[in-house]
Design goal:
The chain is mainly α and 113 residues long. Helix content is 47%, strand content 4%. It has a domain of 31 residues. A two-stranded antiparallel sheet has the order 1-2. Strand 1 and strand 2 form a beta hairpin. Helix 2 runs antiparallel to helix 3. The termini are far apart. 0% of the residues are buried.
Amino acid sequence: MAASASASESAPAAVEPGVLYSHQRELASLPVPELDQTLEKLLRSVKPHVTEEEFTHTQAVCKEFASGVGKELQELLEERGASMRNWVRPRARRCHVVPRHRGVSRGGQQALR
């Protein structure tokens, strides 16, 4: 039987500062996914967590969104994707939840003292 690898052998080596993102510009940009593809993923992720009635309602809302404001928003995202290297990052930064009340953290509610 082969000897098991020690923790130091299996642990990744420390990355030198600046090396981690040194080839970032060489990577391809992420494409803007198609709206239909995004909505299908949403429906697949929601289905196990809702009742059949709620799922049917969610499907109807997705269909309405896709034929209405969703089209406009998709066009804006595609324009953004064509003009920016990373079209996700600036928006994603603004989506982080910031605690508004003392005693509430990103990890959940802490006991108020």
